[in-house]
């Protein structure tokens, strides 16, 4: 019996499955937008395979926003997510790792873009800041210090980022809560 090779567990496979999930549901909101940005950005790194165990950790369920999980891992400094291997005719390992590190550093800007897309859907200007712990401080730090300090410093503490990401996992509930609050106030 001939054993067929298993499909490589790469980042683009993971993000492509998530993209397919959104396409089947005709979703074009912030999560879809984040997925598209990550596909475009990570393509510059090549298509690295996940290190052992990480594919399942991030990509087992496309409905749980693997893209957001990856962004969280990158902005909070998680390392060794990918197993960079030089492929015949491919980009060199050092170049791929360097490009990935640059992408990881600018992940904070991708987070800001994602938050802006969510804010557009919010029923009030203070919806996100009122319901996501640490977001008001994060916005202030970003607004006043961008260009003055390194992107690493701009992020703030890992703990504050984790609180923001924990809330973003339930962003639909936050947006519904804000909508309900607005409806109650207008009655």
- Outline: globular
> Given the helix and strand composition, which structural class is it?
mainly alpha
Using only C-alpha atoms, the radius of gyration works out to: 18 Å
Low-confidence parts, pLDDT < 50 over ≥5 residues?
1-5
Q: Mean of residue pLDDT?
A: 86
Query: How many helical stretches?
Result: 11
**Oligomer state of the chains in this structure:** single chain
Number of strands: 2
Span from first to last CA? 70 Å
Largest sheet: 2 strands, antiparallel
What can you tell me about this protein's structure?
With 187 residues, the protein is mainly alpha-helical. Helices cover 64% and strands 2% of the residues. The protein is built from eleven helices and two strands. The chain has helices at residues 11-24, 30-43, 54-59, 66-75, 93-105, 107-121, 127-131, 135-145, 151-154, 158-168, 171-186, and strands at residues 49-50, 82-83. It has a two-stranded antiparallel ribbon with strand order 1-2. The longest helix is centred in the last third of the chain and has 16 residues, at 171-186. It is globular. The model is unreliable at 1-5 (pLDDT under 50).
Brief rundown of the structure:
The protein is mainly α. The chain contains eleven helices and two strands, in the order ααβααβααααααα. A two-stranded antiparallel ribbon has the order 1-2.
Per-chain topology:
Elements: H1 11-24, H2 30-43, E1 49-50, H3 54-59, H4 66-75, E2 82-83, H5 93-105, H6 107-121, H7 127-131, H8 135-145, H9 151-154, H10 158-168, H11 171-186
Antiparallel strand pairs: 1-2
